[in-house]
Design a protein that fits this description.
Elements lengths: L2 H12 L5 H8 L3 H13 L19 E9 L7 H10 L3 E6 L6 E7 L2 H11 L6 E8 L18
Antiparallel strand pairs: 1-3, 1-4, 2-3
Helix pairs in contact: 2-3
Length: 155
C-alpha cells in the first residue's frame, strides 16, 4: 500500500459517498487510476463495506450497553454455535473475543432498559454454553465510532 491507497482510505472513511471524480481530484490521480485502486482495495477486503452511521437514539434505540459474556467451560467445544447465535441477534451490533475474565465483549442496543433486560435474560442467557454476563450501561457517547487512524505516508 502506498500513499495514494492510504489517502483513498482516509478520504473514503470521511465520506464513503464521495464520487470517484471527487476522490481522484483530492488524491491527484486520474479517475480511472483512482477507480482501479479503490476496486483493488475492495477486492483485497481492505475496504470491507460502505455504511451510513445512524444515530441510535433517533431510531428508537436509546440504550446502549457493553456486555461481557463468559462461556461454560464444559460447553466450550460448541463455541462456534454460540458465535452463530450471537451473530443472529440484531440487538448485538458488535462482538469481540477478549482476554481476561470474560470470553466476549458485546455492544448491545435496545429501545429502553426493560427491553435490554428482557434481551439479556430471555434471549442471550438462553443460548446453550453461555454461563455468565456482566452489563455496563452507556450513559453518554463521548466519541462515536470513527475511521481508523491511518499512517501518514510522505512521498
Amino acid at each position: 500500500m502506498d500513499s495514494y491507497d492510504v489517502n483513498i482510505l482516509r478520504y473514503l472513511q470521511e465520506d464513503g459517498r464521495m464520487s470517484n471524480l471527487q476522490l481522484a481530484e483530492k488524491i491527484h490521480l486520474s479517475p480511472p487510476q483512482t477507480l482501479r485502486r479503490v476496486r483493488n482495495l475492495e477486492e483485497k477486503k481492505i475496504i470491507r463495506s460502505y455504511t451510513a452511521q445512524v444515530a441510535p437514539e433517533e431510531v428508537g434505540l436509546a440504550v446502549m450497553a457493553y456486555v461481557s459474556l463468559s462461556l461454560n467451560r464444559e460447553q466450550f467445544r460448541n463455541v462456534r454455535e454460540v458465535e452463530r447465535n450471537i451473530r443472529a441477534f440484531a440487538e448485538i451490533v458488535e462482538c469481540h473475543t477478549i482476554s481476561g475474565d470474560f470470553d466476549y465483549l458485546l455492544k448491545v442496543v435496545a429501545p429502553d432498559l426493560k427491553s435490554l433486560s428482557q434481551f439479556l435474560t430471555d434471549k442471550l442467557m438462553q443460548v446453550p454454553g453461555v454461563s455468565n454476563l456482566r452489563s455496563m450501561i452507556c450513559l453518554e457517547e463521548i466519541k462515536p465510532a470513527s475511521g481508523l487512524p491511518l499512517p501518514i505516508i510522505v512521498k
